[in-house]
Amino acid sequence: MVFKPPRFHEELPEIEIENPEHERLESAVARALAIAQGVDASDLTVTATDTGITLSGNLLWPYEVERAVEVAKSVPGVENVNVSIEVAKRAIE
Questions:
Q1: End-to-end alpha-carbon separation of the chain, Å?
Q2: What is the Cα–Cα distance from 55 to 30, expressed in whole angstroms?
Q3: What is the domain range of residue 61?
Q4: Is 63 domain-assigned?
Q5: Quick one: average pLDDT of 25-50?
Q6: Total count of domains within the chain
Q7: Model confidence over 46-92: pLDDT tens digits?
Q8: How far apart, in whole angstroms, are the C-alpha atoms of residue 43 and residue 88?
Q9: Which of 25, 55, 72, 80 could form a disulfide bond with 48, CB atoms 3.0-4.6 angstroms apart?
Q10: pLDDT for position 3
Q11: Main-chain phi, psi angles of 54, to 5 degrees
């Protein structure tokens, strides 16, 4: 079987970034969270929308949620942070 490169009317398709500003903000916030002290951002997802930044995922401690929001708001261009983060439940012995 022969696979040919995809073409659109005999021209190679162009890949466009739909919202370059969103990508820039997502990357900047993710970078800031990755190096921030006081929050383990390894299980967080950063999504930029027209209404702001959404942080989603899981954290171990409630104080990490506050710290993640603080770090996200410190990034230039971020005005609003929506939070959809779950904090791990622990059994008390």
A1: 62
A2: 10
A3: 20-87
A4: yes
A5: 94
A6: 1
A7: 999 888 999 999 999 999 999 999 999 999 999 999 999 999 887 56
A8: 12
A9: 25
A10: 78
A11: -115, 125
Is the per-residue pLDDT at 30 higher than 80?
A: yes
For the entire predicted model, the pTM comes to 0.76
**Residue 41 domain flag:** yes
Position 89 scores a pLDDT of 82
Which amino acid, residue 44?
Answer: L
Per-residue DSSP letters for the chain?
Answer: --PPPP-BTTBPPPP--S-HHHHHHHHHHHHHHHH-TT--GGGEEEEEETTEEEEEEEESSHHHHHHHHHHHHTSTT---EEEEEEEPP----
Return the residue matching tokens 């059994």.
91
- The reply to whether 57 falls in a domain is yes
Q: Contact at 8 Å (CB) between 30 and 55?
A: no
Give me the residue label for tokens 């990755």. 34
